[in-house]
Amino acid sequence: MIDDDIPISHADLRDLFERLDRASMSGYQCRHTFAVTREFLSQRTLAVEPILEWLGENGAGCDCEVIFNTAPEWEEIVGYEPPDDTE
Ligand SMILES: [Zn+2]
């Protein structure tokens, strides 16, 4: 069961998924860092380290893994609809 006690608001998490999806659609190549995630969190003055740690516990070690591993479990909870990339 998913623990709802998370260090980021649902709205911010939804926006983070969107930001990362947009980045990857516009050609961002993840170098297995949290470059985009860190930028997003610090722009919103959110707690970067606790959130990165939480993402790590939810399967993400870098920006692309947030989309691959974390988003599928959380997108419904936070109300995020991923772009249609079935082509
Ligand atoms: Zn990556």
Name the descriptors:
binds zinc ion; 87 residues; 0% strand; 4 helices; mainly alpha; globular
Account of the protein in words:
- The chain has one domain.
- It is globular, with a radius of gyration of 12 Å.
- It is mostly helical.
- It has four helices and no strands.
- Helix content is 59%, strand content 0%.
- The longest helix is centred in the first third of the chain and has 16 residues.
- The model has no long low-confidence stretch (mean pLDDT 93).
- The site of zinc ion (ZN) has 6 residues, from helix 4.
How many strands in all?
0
Mean pLDDT, nearest integer? 93
Question: Strand pairing plus helix content: what structural class?
Answer: mainly alpha
Tally of individual helices? 4
Overall body shape = globular
What's the alpha carbon Rg, rounded to whole Å?
Answer: 12 Å
**SSE pattern, N- to C-terminal:** HHHH
Portion in beta strands: under 5%
Main beta-sheet annotation? none
Helix content range: 55-70%
Domains, number: 1
Q: Give the uncertain stretches in residue-range form.
A: none
Distance between the termini: 32 Å
Bound molecules: zinc ion
